[in-house]
Amino acid sequence: MTDIPSGKLVLLRDLHKCRKGDTVRVTGIWEVQEGFTGILSYEGIEVEVRMEYQADISLNGHLVQCIGEILEEPTFGILRINGRILRNVDMLDMELYEKVTDLVNKTLNQ
Questions:
Q1: d(Cα 32, Cα 40) in Å, to the nearest integer?
Q2: d(CA 33, CA 35)
């Protein structure tokens, strides 16, 4: 069995601090989907997500969490992620999630 990392918790606004190949776990609104590619956004920040398999169209407009790897540096200001897992997290309290994510990352970086 391969050792696949679970993904570092990253807020979309902090995604620019990550590097190509980093495994991340990001959360936002699944807005647009064409085939195997969609846009995940939150508070004006967008990331393009390319899925190996076509994502469930019913996720459009919902809060989702994506686990995947950063593909490349930003092009036209948009980062790209190779998404492995996409799941609905509509019940997530984003304000609390942001606080916890900031706290976890501060603790891990000490």
A1: 8
A2: 6
Residue closest to 81 by CA, chosen among 35, 28, 39, 45: 39
> With respect to CATH, is domain 8-109 assigned 1.10.10.60?
no
Domain spans in the chain, listed from the N-terminal domain onward: 8-109
Question: Following CA atoms 89, 77, 101, 109 in sequence, which dihedral angle do they give, to the nearest 10 degrees?
Answer: 150
3-class DSSP state of 31: strand
- Give the per-residue pLDDT at 17: 87
pLDDT tens, residue by residue, 69-97: 998 766 666 789 999 888 999 999 999 99
Residues in a beta bridge with 51 = 83
**Euclidean distance between CA atoms 83 and 14, whole angstroms:** 18
The confidence score (pLDDT) of residue 2 equals 59
Residue 54 has pLDDT above 80, yes or no: no
What's the pTM value of the predicted model, to 2 decimals? 0.84
DSSP one-letter code for 101: H
- Torsion angles phi and psi, residue 14, rounded to 5: -105, 5
